[in-house]
Amino acid sequence: DLAGMTSDIVPENRRRVLAELLRSFAPDVVINANSRLLWDVCETYGLALTASFRMVACLLCNEQTLYGHTRGYPLTRFYRNFDVLSAVATDSHALAEELKSSYALPPEWQSRIHVLSGPVDGTISSVAAPKAGRRRRPQVFWAGRLDPQKRIDLLYQIAQACPEADFRVWGEPVMGALAGLPPAPGNIKRGGTYASFRDLPLTEADAWLYTAAWDGVPQMLLEVAMTGVPIVGTDVGG
What we know:
By secondary structure, this protein is α/β, with parallel strands linked by helices. It has nine helices and eleven strands. α2 crosses α3. The two termini are 31 Å apart. The mean pLDDT is 91.
C-alpha cells in the first residue's frame, strides 16, 4: 500500500516516489484503476513516463454531489491527461460516447477509447418465474447500498404507489447513515445483507427494481439479467 507507506511525505515527493517505483519495474503497461496518486503523477511526469511504458486509464462513471453538481475522474482528469495515455478503458458505452462528444475527439483519438464489457458469472442460470394464479402478493426485489446515490427516497415513493406489492430490500448504508428520510412504507421488508448474489431467494422474485441518481454499469444488473427476472431501472449513466 504505497499510499499508506508515503502518507508522511509531501505530495510532490509522493509523486516522485511512485514515478520512480514504476520505472524500476520496467513494465510494458501501467493501468490506473482509480489511483488518485497515479493521476497526479501523470500530470507531473506523464510525458517523461511515456518514454518508459504505456499508460492506460480505467474510467467508470462520474458522480454527483448532494446539490447535483458533477464530479469524478472522467470529468476532472480525462482532458488533462489524455495526451499521455495510450488508451482509456471503460465498461460503459454511454461514458465512451460522452467522452467522445464532450471533448470533440477526432476519429484517430476516439480509437483510443475502448469499451470492455463487464464480466458475468456464466454459471448463473435462469430461474423459473413464479407460477401465475396463486393468491400471493407480487414480490419486488431491490438490493444495493442504502446511500443517497441509490435514491432510497424514490424506492419509498414507488413502494407507496404500489401498496399491493411487497418490496424486499437487501443492503446497508456504506457512506454513512441516511438522514432526512421518512419512515419506510409498511410494504418494504428489510432482508439485511447477503454474502453472495446466489443467496437471494430469486425464485420468489416477480421483478427487480433498481434506483440510482447516477451510475456506470451495475454488475448486479448483469447478474439479475442472467436469471431472467424482469428489471425496472432508472435511465442514468450506463
